[in-house]
Amino acid sequence: MGSHPQYDVFADEYLEHARDGFHNAHYDRPACLELLGDVAGRRVLDAACGPGLYAEELVARGAHVTGLDNSPRMIELCRHRVPSGEFRVHDLADRLDWLPDGSVDLVLFALALEYVDDRTSVLRELRRVLRPDGALVLSRQHPTGDWLRHGGSYFDVRVIEEVWSKGWRVRYWLAPLERTCEELREAGFLIERLVEPRPTARAAEVDPARYERLTREPTGFLAIRAVPDPRG
């Protein structure tokens, strides 16, 4: 994908969309926050933090949040939304040289893995900054849903370009589930939990048709909690 911040041009629209939107507020955020567990008093790195919606909830739950995103506008929105957090513009293609080894308790990496070119290197760097007893929670588009939408070989790792319903043009990687699992292994993680979320009960009131579909079809997201492999 390179270093161009794709979401920068529609960052404000994305905030309005994701704040109460079905997939974000009633589907991915609840799943990721549940996998993170009790964050009170813990240091959380929000990698690819977007406009700060996850960070806002983490701070409300007592976490100390550091966030990064390669979109300058997203970081402006974060700083306005979560003034107690620490946020900076950073491209995940570069090392997190401003974070020492083992300096955070938890890493959240929500819906951003598919925009990374060298995913193993990024995951390895996230492992470096995690404490040995820490955990990484990541979410990604469900690979089965990707394949149903785009066709071709499910096992091909390839780049897709599409225009979403609001006119946002995006490019991202498609990859099978086994590839994500292998990248985590290569980066030094063990998968503790893999969740195929269901929408919250409130989502049935927001969009009944979408709620019904996502409670029976693997066409949304999945979430993983991974821990550092103690074997090194």
From TrEMBL:
InterPro entries named among the record's database cross-references: Methyltransf_11, Methyltransf_Superfamily, SAM-dependent_MTases_sf
Top-level taxon of origin: Bacteria
Source organism per UniProt: Streptoalloteichus hindustanus
GO function terms (MF aspect): S-adenosylmethionine-dependent methyltransferase activity
Keywords from the named record: Methyltransferase, Transferase
Residue ranges of domain Methyltransferase type in the record: 45-138
GO biological process, one term: methylation
Protein name: Methyltransferase domain-containing protein
